[in-house]
Request: fold
Amino acid sequence: MKNRENKKENAVDLTKKFELDANAMNQIVGGTSFWMDPATGTGVTVSGPDDILCGDLEVVQSCEQSCKTCTSNKTYIYICGTKLKGK
Amino acid sequence: MCEHSHIPFYQNTRKMTPDIEPKKKYQINPAYTLLADRHCAFIFNSKGWPTFRSHPEVDDNFTQLVSPLYASIFAYWDGSKTYHETIQQIVNEMHIQQDVLEKFLHPCIHNMEKTALHFSDKEILEETSSNWIPKNFIIECDGEPRTDLPEPEAFAIPVRQWDFSRMRSRIPTTVTLMLTNRCATNCIYCYADNQHRVEQPLPAEKWLELIQEAHDFGCLSIDLSGGEVFLYPGIETILQTLHQMGYHPYLSTKIPLEEERILQLKECGMTELQFSIDCWDAALMQQMLNVPSSYFERLKRSLDALEKHGIAVKVKSVITSYNDKPEQVEQLILNLSAHKNITSISIAPAENSLYKSEQDFIGYRTSRRQWEKIEALVESMAATYREQCEIGCQGLLDSREHCAAVDEKARVYPKRTRCPGNINMLYVLPDGKVTICEELYWNPRFIIGDVRKQSLMEIWESKKALELYNLSQETFRKTSACHICPQFDPCHQQSGVCWKMVIEAYGDEYWDLPDPRCPYAPPATQKYYIE
Ligand code: SF4
Ligand code: SF4
Reply:
């Protein structure tokens, strides 16, 4: 095992490695991305990486895409970020 | 109204953990470890986690794909720093706000139950397999910090590379070595391909080389199987090496071991053993196992010697039409429970064998009626002996599940147990051929390599192994529902189908029909279940 302790003393910036900014990190961990109720169009807060990353969110009711970050079961509801669309 | 509108809004139902002490150190429970993969991360039980006994305080056999970002946060919890210091470090290095981070982490600390990190909606929870956190995941650290966890950086995979749709890990985390297919008994209900003649069994040095390789690439569990493992001449050295490397292979036998042999094996690190004992009657044993009449007496002596030398014993009893009377099972349990070292008795119905005829199976299988009587008896006896020994029945491969109505199958099939073969498990046969599942033995369709010519990792990454995982829907016959099934990829790459059941139900030639438990599956053409 490498010297974990020493390594951790040197402050690293993991956001860069994830290629996420602090805002996105907080969104994923804190669940501040959105999940919209398709009936009302009201945005609600959900937790998790399913639908993160997306400043511009869009409700897609029958999603044919397979977004890399989506863990949703496709029979339910899917929110794809514009950044991920068309991948 | 929209079909999705029944889904309730998110609510945070996470229980806040009330008693975290900022000055105390916390770590990931030594029962669990993290694995960084190419596109995701996994939580598994730690290397060498003993599967012999069940551990009520943790989840055994735990495999979970998690977001690399979560894994990165978890990897900080090695127990080297206090709670407060660890939180500060994560805040600094990951730029996550402290309140957000703590709200995320608290349900994972001393969590009494397996916890889903996501939605509160029950339907989604059941459907989404991702991001379950095992029970008591992060706990107070009362010993040394862990040095076996990957660095948080190991999980820092750029977000565009994340992919949660594939369960196959970058290494086989479980490797089973079938040392021999020779047996000391010839049981009427044997499911194994023990007729296959192994001309050139691998020598002990080769097994040791494979163990070293598996250890070096970070394999978490190495098991030994047979045939009869104790008939393999180099078993002592292999066992000793495994124990020295921190592995605790599950050993199962039907050989009545002499006291001297028990002592030798104990020196090599053996502390526990599974013994197969189906009845407590010499004549019946002779009939079921095709053994000499002295077998039963030797078995009793062996049980006494195992008790004397403190080897824990788990008994597995297989129920056939020969031994399925409740009074036979009762007699067996009464006699076994007199041994203090017997920690569990597990009663299981004999299953079909791919290497016997349907008529053979119909001849030896028990009936649902008898099995229900046995279940009732075992339940009542289990209560009596609870303090001393775990007694229970294993599930029945029942026509009710396999011939159920389509709606019922549609409800149950998505929740099937995941097939680990070629997803995180490899199985090495006695001649060095490598298959994805023990029960498929030398079936050429599932042989993915040969350790005489390739390393384990070469086999894991071989074209054959990857093709078997990334099966092309096109290659499935047009008359198979799988050929046009929209669920094809998730079905094969996440939970997987049970190839053994497909072949049992339809025969080897029809290996590309749906899993017989799938709602789209045609009725089985062979009886491989209990009725
Ligand atoms: S077994 Fe075949 S038909 Fe059934 S869900 Fe899987 S791919 Fe579809
Ligand atoms: S093919 Fe079936 S029996 Fe074999 S490992 Fe997979 S689920 Fe288990």
